[in-house]
Amino acid sequence: MKRKLKAVWELTRAEHGLMYGFGVLIGIVIAGGSSYAVAILGFLIALFIQAGTFALNDYCDLDLDIANRRTDRPLVRGELRKEAALLIACFATALGIIFAIVLAIIINSLILLLLALILAALGILYDIKMKAFLAISNIYIAVTMAVPFIFGGLIAGGVDTSLLVLSSIAFLAGFGREVMKDIADVKGDALRDIKSVARIYGVEKAKTITVFSYSLAVILSVIPFFLVNTSYHFNLAYILVILVADALFLHVCVKLRKKDVNYYFLRKETLIAIAIGLIAFVSGALVPL
After folding, report:
1. CB-CB contact of 119 with 49 (8 Å)
2. Measured between alpha carbons, how far is residue 43 from residues 40, 116, 148 in Å?
3. pTM here?
4. How does residue 206 score in pLDDT terms, banded at 50, 70 and 90?
5. How many domains does the chain contain in total?
6. What sections of the protein cross the membrane (predicted)?
7. Shortest CA distance to 181 belongs to which of 248, 265, 275?
8. So what's the pLDDT on residue 82?
């Protein structure tokens, strides 16, 4: 049983879904808060829609993942059947949409429902077709990392400058991570003629784009510290934590300039950096220091 649950966790990338859900909560907190019930619904919408997208991704990419020797994927290891992955994808996506309908009724917001439906539809298009187009898949993933904060802000009633900065940082970090993933998957991508940045422009150019994205995210992360009339203005609870995340991103940039690169390890490191960055925005919003 534990093995199956672990396989489902890996199939749906539950750690990513949790991060998307917490992104919604962070957006709510920064924008001024909401009721617990509404916040929980926002969290569940992000969690299940992304879980469905990731499960469908593994269903569609099984041959590619086998070619890339992605033994971190449960379908490749044979721990889940392909049909089970499709069923989980449909179930998770449907749950996310149902929660979005309930949320829209509670707070009387058609915009939030439409946004959830658009994200679910884009997720399906991404898994089925969008990967074949140059950089479109990278941009899609980056958008899904930025939208939760905006979604949370809209739930709470507004999106301010600090939320826009946070969303921009998430977009840049997400774009960089996806281009870095393309470098690692360049051989397998050739099987499906996926026009990734690494395949079209070469590995070195892809590395440069990744470093640029991370570096720009680091630069933007300092802006909230100087935003007057916000909780982040000269707030040490924010800047001291965000500098840790920045250090990790810069470390990855340095590592990318070397010949022998462990992209799997660097993706994990950037995921940790993103998590620390989220903690920084929460501490900045809640802790005056």
Report:
1. yes
2. 5, 12, 9
3. 0.84
4. confident
5. 2
6. 20-49, 84-104, 110-126, 133-156, 209-228, 234-254, 266-287
7. 265
8. 84
As a whole number of angstroms, the distance between CA 51 and CA 96 comes to: 9
CA 287/CA 29 separation, integer angstroms? 12
The domain that contains 224 carries what CATH number? 1.20.120
Amino acid letter, residue 209: I
User: Three-class SS of residue 135?
Assistant: coil
DSSP state letter for 260: S
CA–CA gap between residue 179 and residue 115 (Å, rounded): 25
Distance, C-alpha 12 to centroid of its chain: 13
Burial of 210 from C-beta contacts in 10 A (0-12 / 13-18 / 19+): buried
pLDDT digits (tens, 9 = 90+) for 218-235: 999 999 999 988 889 999
Return the residue matching tokens 């187009």: 133
- Measured in whole angstroms, the distance separating CA 230 from the mean position of its chain's CA atoms is 26
The DSSP string of 141-174 is HHHHHHHHHHHHHHHHT---HHHHHHHHHHHHHH
183 and 195 part of one domain: yes
Q: What CA–CA distance (Å, rounded) separates 76 from 67? A: 10
Residues in the chain: 289
Cα–Cα nearest to 34, from 158, 217, 220: 158
What burial class does residue 121 get, using C-beta atoms within 10 Å of its C-beta: 0-12 exposed, 13-18 middle, 19+ buried? exposed
Picking from 112, 137, 156, the residue at the C-terminal end of a domain is 156
pLDDT at 188: 65
Please tell me what DSSP assigns to residue 226. Answer: G
Same domain? 39 vs 126: yes
Average pLDDT, the chain: 87
